[in-house]
Design brief:
alpha+beta, archaeoglobus fulgidus dsm 4304 fold, eight-stranded mixed sheet, 5 helices, DNA-binding
Length: about 220
Amino acid sequence: MPPREAVKLQRILAEQVELRRIAEDFAVLGASDISYMKPVDRLVAVVLTFHWPSLEPLESVHAVSPIGFPYVPGLLSFREIPPLLMAYRLLKRAPDVFLCDGQGIAHPRRLGLASHLGLCLDIPTIGCAKSRLCGEHRPLELRRGNYAPLLLNDVQVGYVFCSRNGVKPIYISPGHLADLDSSRKLIERCLGRFRIPQPLRQAHLEATRIRKSLFAGSG
DNA sequence: GCGACAG
DNA sequence: ATCTTGTCGC
């Protein structure tokens, strides 16, 4: 799909996104990440699930596939969703809420990776990015737990959140079937001793581990 | 035209 | 995202 068409599709899909409070009594939390094999044209998509709220590991699945779309800021979902869905289908039990490594509605057309994936899976999704794509916010004092609204055209689309003292903040935004406060609160309950929420950190480590084991094997 | 720009 | 060594700090 040409980038031009992708943008048109985003505008249509963004209309379908629903923001609502996340139920507090769900049982399975999912999280995903992707690791790229630079020299070769392949990537590893990992999906992990955890019991909620204990965060005890449940399932771990992954898929390896060719990279089918270039990296274009604003069009990340078209590059990562296909492989993520491949891995997702391998799960025995579907998660009730899903964490994504990227933005939700904190996106130029309000359809970041988390929002797009949420529409595909029809489950609540939350975007948690390590850096900003768009939007502005007031200065944030870097004390763990502090946060500030992320605004886009004077409308709040997420939160800039400090997960560790003196460390660069993370960007939290609802994807689909989630709202601003539900998203921030859920991420807070996933924090461990690192900047990145535990489920996403685990997914990242697992994706990197698998990519390296694949390089050692064939190529 | 220039700067910004998830992973 | 990936490519990479040492290095500063809790």
